Amino acid sequence: MARMLMRALERKGHSVEVASELRSYSRVPDTDVWTDLIANAGLEVSRISERWRDEPTPDVWFCYHPYYKAPDLIGPRLAERFGLAYVTAESSYAAKRDDGPWMKWQGSVRNGLERAVVNFCLTERDRPGILAAVPTARTASLKPFIDTALFAEKGSRRDEPGLCLMSVAMMREGDKFESYRFLAGALKKLPESLPWTLSVIGDGPKAAEVKQLFADIPAGRVEWLGSKPETEVAELLAKGSIYVWPGNGEAYGLAYLEAQAAGLPVIAQRIAGVPEVVADGVSGTLTPPGDGDAYAGAIADLLNDDARRMALAAKARNFVLEQRSLDQAAATIDAILRETTGLK
């Protein structure tokens, strides 16, 4: 999403530069880690300040996804020193981190929210936390989006014989692994008579363990495609019939938008930020969180109903191409920045 935001800004004629590559992420709230972060951030502020004394300063400092484990320790200081407009996108704030070991990190996030002329919210889940912490914070809605060029040029897909379920996800511990576990369990509940295969695009450190989750599924049903480049992912998705990914812990999931742009209806759980990118009953089906029977039933229903599957496929494609494109997001970002920062 950070790369997509940069492309959206450039699409409207803005010049974008990555000013710093300092990584502020902290895995644990260790005092020594915080001390090192503050020291390194100070060095970056000094380095950038020295450079800007001899070069034109930017109009805006734009920070993507500051949250308690990864606060922006540079931007607010430079914005104050040089009189820049400060902007965030996908800021996240949870009051439960106000006290305890993350307090210092959390305070930096709050400082950024207070400083920002606007905070772009990619999901409605983030807005209440921001406004509870900083009631005067300026927020603006920016729905998750993708560059639809790869999908738009392919034209509408047709439903091929032989129903192929598709999944695209990294194979790593945590929510991704739990989604794979949930998916494997649901597929095992499907009647053996249903004609389906599953193609999985993705790789990662938990690949062996993920594949083991599906070991009880009959041979020939599951195909492991490994990691693929963006263009090939688009081509592979266009050959599928249904996109299946439970979505445990997904902030929203750009892969859902890519699948829908390729003409695949989605079956996911109504969980976390998934409803922000999948329109239940329009572009797919969202089932209750943790209900494996309901999830398996939703898959079976679409496999058995050609007319509904194809209708959802068309609506899914139109939903993304018409409402979640890079051009639309670029126009939204540009208009809000000009309103809030004074850009000409």
Strand line-up in the sheet with most strands: 7-6-5-8-9-10
Mean pLDDT equals 94
How many domains, as an integer?
Answer: 2
Shape: globular
Measured by DSSP, the beta-strand proportion falls in 5-15%
CATH superfamily of the largest domain: Glycogen Phosphorylase B
Determine the number of helices (DSSP H or I, runs of at least 4 residues).
Answer: 13
CATH class wording of the largest domain: Alpha Beta
Largest sheet: 6 strands, parallel
Structure characterization notes:
There is one protein chain. The chain has 344 residues and is an alpha/beta fold. It folds into two domains: 2-145 and 326-341, 3-Layer(aba) Sandwich (Rossmann fold); 149-323, 3-Layer(aba) Sandwich (Rossmann fold). 44% of the residues lie in helices and 13% in strands. The chain has 13 helices and ten strands. It has helices at 2-11, 31-54, 75-82, 103-115, 126-133, 149-152, 175-187, 207-213, 230-237, 254-261, 292-304, 306-323, 326-341; strands at residues 60-64, 85-89, 118-121, 139-141, 163-168, 196-201, 222-226, 242-244, 266-269, 284-287. Strands 7-6-5-8-9-10 form a six-stranded parallel β-sheet, sandwiched between helices. Strands 1-2-3-4 form a four-stranded parallel β-sheet, with helices on both faces. Strand 2 (85-89), helix 4 and strand 3 (118-121) form a beta-alpha-beta unit. Helix 10 packs across helix 12 (306-323). It is globular. 38% of the residues are buried.
